Amino acid sequence: MLTNIFAFFLKISPRLKRAVWKKLYQYLAKKYPTGEWTYMNYGYEPGNQSIPIPLNAEEEIDRYMIQLYHHVATAVDLRDKDVLEVGSGRGGGSSYIKRYLKPKTMTGIDYSKNAIKFCNKQHSVEGLTFIHGDAENLALANESVDAVVNIESSHCYGSMKKFVEQVYRVLRPGGHFLFADLRPSEQLDELDKTFSAAGFKVLKKELISKEVVNAMDAIHEYKLEFFQNMVKGWLKKPLNDFAGVKGSNIHKQLSNGEMVYYHYALKK
User: Fold this and answer.
1) What domains are there in the chain, each with its CATH number?
2) 97 touches 75 (CB < 8 A)
3) Against a cut of 0.85, is the pTM above it?
4) Which of 37, 64, 134, 173 is the most interior residue, by most CB within 10 Å?
């Protein structure tokens, strides 16, 4: 398990998977409450042909992770909308969306109470709220938000079906579900069926494995140094794999196609 922590978590039972991921994120948020670590995704780098998105100087260190949020969340116009991020983690993505994409309200929900405590301490932005909640049983009223963002989080859930049904329930008519995550390649058809069965119309389905690997490669040295300085003992090796550094199993599998990373824009 320690040499392929991600693959292990994908294969265990749904109930155990929820419990293990929750404990991991609870531990990380409590053990490492550093404000330098507010993004946990693998990032996105489209290549030299793209025009870099403008960022504040202090956010350049997180550029690749921010680029993933930007790419996914700008699939539709979120300005003046009520937006929900499910699986908001350490809060960097929700903060970026609120500050740069200008929704009316931005709410981040996460299963880890420690992560929510960290976010409420770390991110002070008008109109941005973080609350504890369950992706498979969202404590929101029917048709209460205009868009739901879910980035690199759903692989932690016990039931993708329950989660997608909850997203459909809380979205207003015509609302959008902006999704990005990785899966074993053989599970992609199942994901498509889950979206369709819930009632979503696919506006965009995009394979972005290459762009994610590009970002992994670009940030490899920084991640190695970051975890070298922060993490000690037995946890260093599994966290390197979890973080997707070069040579890790998840990096290899995204590179060779065993795992695929897709971005969807869906409409209710």
Assistant:
1) 5-46+58-267 (3.40.50.150)
2) no
3) yes
4) 64
